[in-house]
Amino acid sequence: MEGLLFSEIGWRAQGGYPLLSLLQLFPLLAAGLMLLLRNLPRLALIGLLLAAGELLLAVSLYLQHDHASTALQFSEQLPLLGPFAYHAGVDGVSILFILLSALLVLLASIYGLVRGLGPAWRFLAVMFAVEAALMSLFVSLNLLWFVLLSALQLGLVGYLLWRWGTSPDKEMALARFYQFMAIGVLMLLAATLLLGWNHAHASGGSWSFDLLELSRVPVEPALGSLIFFLLFYGLALRTPLFPLHGWLPLVAEHGNIAVAPTLLLGLKVGIYGMLRFLFPLLPKAVEQWHYHVVAFAVVGIFYAASLAMMQHNLRRLLAFAVVSHTGLIVIGLFTLHRLAFQGAVLLSVTFGLAIAALMFMTGMVYRRTRTTSLRKLGGLFDTIPFIGVTFLVAGLTIVGMPGTPGFDAVHLVLEASIHRFGGLLSIAAALGNVAAAGFLLWAFQRAFLAPRTEGLPPLRVEPTSSAERLVAGLVLLVLLGAGFWSEPWLELIEQPLAALSRLYPGGEP
User: Fold this and answer.
1) DSSP code string of 242-263
2) Is the pTM of this model over 0.90?
3) Gap between the Cα atoms of 62 and 73, Å rounded
């Protein structure tokens, strides 16, 4: 397996400098600068320039990557304390998530400063710290480091929820968030220790959590099933997948409106963790249980869609939209087919962009109206049409309308699911997507087009500011650009996902 999936190309042969280390250290240095220069008059502008600099580093990584290779590239290693050794490397899937992370952190930083989430130095320092943790997550080839960095990143996002929450009930939402996330991290840690113990048992006492070394050691079926469920549920909790989504509606309604949800939901760390560790290390267990996972995902699509239809709070409606759409991504992954892997990854990235746009637009509506209750909204398109158009395009992206990046992704998932499961399940998944279109379009119509309910005082809504138009315009540009120009992203992920699909019978047509 290791020769198939995890051959490496050293960074010295490609770059001449440790680009992955720079991607991780640059945000940390930026966070330090924010703390050091906290009283500087133009600190916010400096912070945004630094966030743009990190995005340029991510683009540089993309440009230097060899798309035709299945190898893990730009490899970096540093021996530390035995199994804690630093080992980093990337393939096309990693790079796609790195690009998305850098872009969303830049957009969230602009949005946060526009919303007045101050003081600016503190907000930007936390954002850069989150970005450093995310970059480390997406380049790490050590499962133990991945788990520890996940805990750090979730702790920082929890601070964002607490520090800049907008509801008097945010303490309750934060407690529920930490309860769920702590359980998820503990499950990941237990699975990691079991894999390390299995490696030690097979190799005569040498513990390791390195992906390449773990991939060389077989796992007994009974132990493999236990590790599978620990890893899968630990990652599914933060994705979140039905029925492990209980924290999300509370956090969406009572936590920070846009910034923290964007970092939690726009970046599908759980989906990435499955692709990077679960599927390569436990192929037999994945194949044994994938029908059960797909069944839960299909139920989750309709369950969350039906609950979304009942919501009158825009934030809770978007939370259930997340759960419903996540079911489609998981169906793609557990179809165990090359095309479905590609579609699921594209859906994850597309979803990240679209949910970020929906959250940002919802935050802009809340800033003007001080409510996200659909019963108290209406007629907003007359005064803030650009925000309305962006909300609409993002919603259509989630449901996979032609011209959006979600179209190709949904098509790949459904085509592969027909190949693997037949027409019935694929029709069910497609109908779930239609239901998602229904409740998202209803939310747009109710908030932006429908007249306000009689008896409510008129809203005095200020026009869209230049900074808000910048955020909305950038999101629109990326969504539509990726929709009409999806070939580079498919080319980027094709080789590593084709190699992964060969582990599963029927995965390669």
Assistant:
1) TTS-TTHHHHHHHS-SSHHHII
2) yes
3) 11
